[in-house]
Design brief:
Layout (H helix, E strand, L loop, with lengths): L5 H13 L2 E8 L3 H16 L4 E8 L2 E3 L2 E2 L10 H4 L5 H9 L7 E3 L1 H20 L16 H7 L4 H19 L6 H21 L6 H6 L2 H20 L3 H13 L1
Parallel strand pairs: 1-2, 3-5
Antiparallel strand pairs: 3-4
Helix pairs in contact: 1-2, 4-5, 6-7, 7-8, 10-11
Length: 251
């Protein structure tokens, strides 16, 4: 009798697509009560004790420049829109830099820090671009990086381990060339960084391309603006010509 509500809908969908017991149930901290508690109660009543989600992961709130992101406020940001101005890896790093259970303050400063961090990694990788890493073993389960991720997805600690390895790589790069020990250290550090980055979906771009991506598009746009300004001046449309000049100066 009546119609299905918010809580029973989710129990029905999870049972249909994931089964009566599944591994991970995620959601925001604001959904713990009443939504998730009702899901647990009704699903276990229907399917028996020990069923439903084995692990719950509740993420912190997202705030935009210090203000909670909300549809009612109208400060919603989408990945699609952000990708117009930022590389995907920059967005990913900005999201992962804060532990998922903690509040995430999304800001222009945070995006700038993420870009700077990736620039440092790619700068080092570009210097060792021709170093062969084949034959080096992958990350072991007891590697501090893997242990950090196994500890409730502690991405800030995982990044700290990546920075340690980056420092080791840079230290090896500046050592005198020609020693077997130096070459081995560089290859190991490069291999480690690429594998650790791959686990997080980072450092997947060619190092040279990372610094040149978008440059051709920018150059094409600049040339088009210059041509448009020349035409505007020829048409004696000086207001348009001045506007384009100001945009070119700003860029």
């Amino acid at each position: 009798r009546g119609r299905p509500g918010w809580h029973i809908e989710c129990s029905a969908m999870s049972t249909e697509y994931l089964g009566t017991t599944f591994d991970i149930h995620g959601g925001g901290q604001d959904l713990i009560f009443p939504h998730h508690e009702n899901e647990i109660a009704q699903s276990i009543c229907a399917n028996g004790a020990g069923t439903f989600a084995k692990l719950w992961m509740h993420n912190g709130y997202v705030v935009i420049e210090g203000e909670k992101m909300s549809k009612s406020i109208g400060n919603i940001l989408t990945v699609h829109a952000l990708l117009a101005d930022h590389a995907g890896e920059v967005l990913r790093l900005a999201l992962l830099a804060t532990h998922y259970r903690q509040p995430l303050n999304w800001s222009a400063a945070a995006l700038g820090q993420a870009r700077d961090m990736l620039d440092r990694f790619y700068t080092a990788l570009r210097k060792v671009g021709d170093v062969d890493t084949s034959g080096y073993e992958g990350l072991a389960d007891d590697d501090p990086f893997m242990e950090a991720l196994a500890d409730d997805l502690n991405t800030p600690l995982a990044f700290a381990e990546m920075h340690k390895r980056l420092q080791a790589l840079n230290a090896a790069i500046i050592r005198p060339e020609g020693t077997r020990e130096r070459s081995d250290e560089i290859a190991k550090a490069k291999s480690w960084l690429l594998e650790a980055g791959g686990i997080l979906g980072l450092l997947q771009v060619d190092a040279d391309a990372w610094f040149t991506e978008g440059a051709e598009a920018d150059a094409g746009e600049i040339e088009a603006l210059i041509a448009e300004r020349v035409q505007a001046r020829a048409d004696r449309d000086f207001a348009t010509a001045d506007r384009i000049r100001d945009e070119l100066v700003a860029r």
